[in-house]
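Explain this one:

_____
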Amino acid sequence: MTLCRWFLCFALMLAGPVAAKSYVLQSGDTLRIEVIEDSSLNRNALVLPDGTIAFPMIGQVAAAGLTLSQVREALTSGLAPNFAQRPSLHVAVASIARKETSARAISAPKASDNLITVFGMGELGRPGKLQLQQGSSLLQFLAQAGGTTPYAATKRVQVRRVASADGITKTYRVNVKKLMQGGGASFLLAPGDVVIVPERKLFE
């Protein structure tokens, strides 16, 4: 974590609930979400480049541009049909997106740049944003992301990729379990890929 990001996190903690309540989320932030009635749903959720987070039983939920209380209300409303009573949620900022200079953000990558940014979410040891060497494989990404959790559905990992030409998102389904056993061709990642490791279903 850079000094700037550390200072911002520390300032939020010192300011207490008022600052946290007014903080507006952005892509790259990581949220800590806890459901009092069902601890199996507790997890970190990354705000993706499209401004959403993914959560079990709900799917994609808008987060960027909203406050923590607004996201908590959206999650609570989405989960409510699955509980006998309206669930109680705690939503906090686990980490803040790294700031980039405007020049870096708008300029095209230089030929000498050999790093790509890949986002990971779901049943990962360390979900979030990672920088990898160009040409890195999905297995290498998983290794740097702390591997998968015991609840991961490794046979149906998704990689979402936005085509630079038309902006259409294409989803690839990868059997990571097979790859780890030495079967199948290596899956190479591209800049901006989003790797989603879903939760394993009962008896899967």
Q: What stands out?
A: The chain has two domains: 3-95, 105-197. The chain has a mean pLDDT of 81.
